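[step 3/7] inverse_fold.run input=structure_tokens len=151
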């Protein structure tokens, strides 16, 4: 809704990823989720635009986590996902993630947060592995012989 249009010739690729300035100024109608989430998204976008938070390559991960947690509406789960995805932290671990909890139970892993300490400094990779084991449409290709529906 706010990314700059781009002509690429690639089907489906129609816009660049929006800038933080564009997101902080977007109309409510373009953000189809609850008001509190819209406000949180705008707070993050404004903090990025004002360079109060650095999520770029080489950013200080501890400082980024601290500044994110200081924003209203941002909790530990969100911080860990941002650390994993935006900061490329190989040890980010969203311990309260429902998918992780369900997958660990399926594998008979008890006491997930404590058990995950043994996976340091690679907990992001363990997270990806556990998510891949979680029954979800994103983890299967219907009709593909190598993908079995997980129950």
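[step 3/7] decode complete -> sequence:
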């Amino acid at each position: 809704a706010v990314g700059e249009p781009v002509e690429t010739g690639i089907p489906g690729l129609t816009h660049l990823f929006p800038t933080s300035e564009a997101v902080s100024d977007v109309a409510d109608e373009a953000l189809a989720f609850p008001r509190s989430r819209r406000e949180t998204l705008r707070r993050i976008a404004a903090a990025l635009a004002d360079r109060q938070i650095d999520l770029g390559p080489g950013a200080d991960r501890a400082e980024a986590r601290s500044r994110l947690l200081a924003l209203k509406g941002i909790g530990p789960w969100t911080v860990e996902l941002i650390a994993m995805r935006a900061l490329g932290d190989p040890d980010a671990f969203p311990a309260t993630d429902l998918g992780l909890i369900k997958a660990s139970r399926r594998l008979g892993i008890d006491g997930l947060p404590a058990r995950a300490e043994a996976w340091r400094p690679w907990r992001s990779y363990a997270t990806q592995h556990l998510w891949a084991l979680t029954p979800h449409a994103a983890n299967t290709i219907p009709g593909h012989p190598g993908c079995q529906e997980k129950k």
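[step 4/7] annotate
The mean pLDDT is 91.
The two ends are 36 Å apart (CA to CA).
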